[in-house]
């Protein structure tokens, strides 16, 4: 039977242990251990370990492993908390180390001493080559209770036992061997992660098999038994000494006005600004109700903090989303301008957001344009201080794809084979070892070739490998963070919590999600582009919500680039629905999810008056009429419960949650109350039961209407700009995908489809982003490969300082020593950036040597990258004219842009070979064609094995209008595999089909037109 150990590292000591917390608890239960300890190099896993031990009735013993410097020597210590005060001592020590010297895990002894208390037990782990009685005595005089100081014995310092016995009695010597894996069968897996961490080969690893639970000799068992006395006075305690209200950050109001009064004053101003001085009484009643609830739940400061940083963003021209989540259901949020949705007008419910009968923080998540989000975080940092704001840690775990690459490297297996294995793992099986092998011939083959890899893989998959930063979350604390939660160094001077987001609110920290949303950046860029070209200032709050152009665009399925509406499935629904109001978009985005999407056909039929319908009870008509008798939103479930059973909206929200989570015992209690109240409201028992069953069915599927309205409004705003300012919209989309060749080609094709001109980059219009000129989209120089930021900046600076480049000679004189060389010049030529000089591209490039030699002849000197020339030293050489090479131009343009712009090889071949009438463009394919011919370039070939274990393939192809996936079954693949190679141009006859609302094809016949090298 296994025994308890103290110096146990979990897998949160990254790549240093195989011990996962759940497996450790199982080990403890199997061995009937009443207590378990952890002693990691950090506190990443402490809260999780503590809570899970408590759940399993096991006493958690919390420790910390680190080093300290004393007299220029480094000593290893393990500290264990006796009680809650000791735990917070560990929090401070760990925070000090992780914010100043995380890499070495060391603290200077002078810094450590003030943090040590009688609430800690200390184990000194001397090494055989490094032990000092003076260090022991110094610690002994530091702790008031010498009973809390121990000497650790382990497999690597057994020679010191006699020294220990001279220094302390036997009960102060404790077995403290590091435990890094459960038993010796895990050693090779541990050796692998050790090699991964040290970036060495498996055979180069010198670690020894001495770190399992049972790695101790019976002659030292008495020291292992001393652990029982060591933990005898360890208390069971909570890891928090406050609830969230005790530590809720206070908003610094002017002149220390009470936050309650200040919030009401801001809301009053907001109401006057948004609704005028003559306000409908329902707004006044709603506002008073919301403010009273917010005050009752002590969340005045919370709303003011959010109001303040949203206000900062808007004042600084940082775009903020119209709302996110249930916060759009709050009138207070609307009046504070946190959201831009009027919840009264949109029939949104406050209790869905903040329920006085349900404890918990309100959840106001805010979207900011993604390129300015950090400015908002920096604002919070400056306003509240370094000790009161932190990012949140995340842990990146090892999936099978990564594990295969790592383990292959450790065993010296080639990158090519490692790549094949990694790519053979389906993304959905990345953490499922068994599923990954199902019908996977590649993994099956390599598991036989390299069995040692796959033997240890299951022990490695799922281990935390490194830390990251939560993309959106920050925490705020009224008290200094290190008195509440362990922290570590983050970035930009902002700390990071050592605990993940799951545990922070429980510890009394206010968590807020500040999300970066790319679509808001696009919106901002579009509006800037519109102003730059037309001087029209667009105010998104004032655009008409009934714009016919916008709904025509959506009804036609022209949704590419539009937030939440551009997926093929969503586009198909919009075409069928033919939306004519914002509410249609709200409903579409709410229904297009697993479960409720089964109602989409019925919804469309009812909306378009193709079928008649009635209501389960006419008294529900006002609630269900906007969605044609179908429950779409969670709020409808709540309103029905209110109307039928007189439930308060707070109780109706609790009912909705219980139904959604299928909490049967509580639901049965509420069902009885619902049915009794319904009968008292003059519903028949049968009708009441039918209504209960109706809302029960839809409660799990219903969508949050507040969120749907806010995000649908954002989608509408993008659609409005696309419909009314297409060139500026496409230019902004393109700017946002610089570097992504596939999306760039996609959007350029879309621009052409919308009859928008596309101008190549130009050295005399040195742009860093896409812009529009006279309704044409101009490409930036930065889109050209080889033209990095450094060279671009020098071109732009030269242009802005000395004006346009007059000719080729001028270009060479001004840029020759600033980054212009043969490769960058070639890139400029073939990307079209020199087309304005009126030479063909072949001529431009072939004159490079002539021009470079000319500059060298007239050069007098160089001064800080500036050429000093004397034009009298030589005459300008005459440019030699060459016949243009169209095919080479196409290939080179693609090489330097990553997409085809001035011409396309298929367009050229189609014209040359007379295929215009014999083939269909991919963008023009329709299922009704049945079979057709397409002329395409092969992008990728993915081989798989069919059920008969024969090779077949999925072939991704594209033409000048779009892309398509072609299935090639085994009998044809065997015959034509040699033709199906990337970059080959082929003529295909295909049978059309569809998958996930996208047209695809099955190959019937194939003809090779040209190979890559031709």
Outline the structure in words.
A hairpin with a 4-residue loop joins strand 20 and strand 21. 42% of the residues lie in helices and 16% in strands. It has 1014 residues and is an alpha/beta fold. The protein starts with 20 loop residues before the first helix and ends with a strand. The mean pLDDT is 93. Helix 30 runs antiparallel to helix 31. The longest helix has 20 residues, at 705-724. The protein is built from 39 helices and 23 strands.
Can you count the helices?
39
Beta-strand portion reads 15-25%
Which spans have pLDDT < 50 for at least 5 consecutive residues?
none
On the 0 to 100 scale, the average pLDDT is 93
Tell me, what's the shape?
globular
Task: Evaluate the radius of gyration.
Answer: 35 Å
Brief descriptors of the model:
alpha/beta; 7-stranded mixed β-sheet; 23 strands; 39 helices; 6-stranded mixed β-sheet; 1014 residues
Question: Summarize this, please?
Answer:
It contains 39 helices and 23 strands. It is of the alpha/beta class. It is globular and about 95 Å long.
Task: Summarize the topology.
Blueprint: H1 21-30, E1 35-40, H2 46-55, E2 59-70, E3 73-81, H3 84-100, E4 106-108, H4 109-112, E5 120-125, H5 133-142, E6 149-153, H6 161-167, E7 173-175, H7 187-198, H8 221-230, H9 259-275, H10 281-296, H11 300-315, H12 331-335, E8 366-369, H13 373-384, E9 389-397, H14 400-410, H15 415-424, H16 433-437, H17 441-449, H18 451-460, E10 464-476, E11 487-491, E12 494-497, E13 510-517, H19 518-534, H20 548-555, H21 568-577, H22 582-591, H23 600-607, H24 621-624, H25 634-645, H26 649-661, H27 664-680, H28 685-699, H29 705-724, H30 726-736, H31 741-753, E14 757-759, E15 771-773, E16 776-778, H32 789-802, H33 808-815, H34 822-830, H35 841-846, H36 848-858, E17 859-863, E18 866-869, H37 886-897, H38 905-913, E19 931-945, E20 951-958, E21 963-968, H39 970-976, E22 985-995, E23 998-1010
